[in-house]
Amino acid sequence: MFVLQPLFGKLLLPLLGGTPAVWNTCMVFYQGVLFLGYGYAHTVSTRLRLNQQIFLHLAIMTASLLSLPVALPENPAPPTEGDPTFWLLSTLFWAIGLPFFVVSATAPLLQKWFAQVGHHTSHDPYYLYAASNTGSLLALLSYPFLLEPYLGLNSQRLAWSAGFAVLCLLLAGCALVLWQSRYLAQATQPAHGEDKAPPGWRVQGHWLLLALVPSSLLLGLTNFISTDIASMPLLWVIPLTVYLFSFVWVFSRWHRFIHPLMLRLQPLFLVPFLAFAFVNPGDLPYWVYLVLHVVAFFFAVMVCHGELAKHRPPSHHLTRYYLVMAFAGLLGGLFNTFVAPWVFNGIYEYPLMIAAALMLRPSRQVWSVRSLAWQVALPLALLLLGVILYQITENLVAYFDGLAISLMAISVLVFLLRSRPVVLGLTTGAVIALALALHGLASHTLYQGRSFFGVMAVKERFLADADGQLIKYHELFHGTTQHGAQRMDADGLRLPLTYYSQSGPIGQLFSEFDAVNANWAIGVVGLGAGAMACYAKPGQHWTFYEIDPLVLKIAEDSRYFKYLDECAQHAAIRLGDARLTLAGEPEGRFDLLVMDAFSSDAVPAHLLTQEAVALYFKKLKPGGILAFHITNRHLLLQKVLSVHAETLRLAALVQAYQPLPEIPMIVATDWVVMAKRQAVLEPLKLSRLGHWQNMPLYFDLAPWTDDFSNIVAIWK
Question: Is the pTM of this model over 0.85?
Answer without folding.
Answer: no
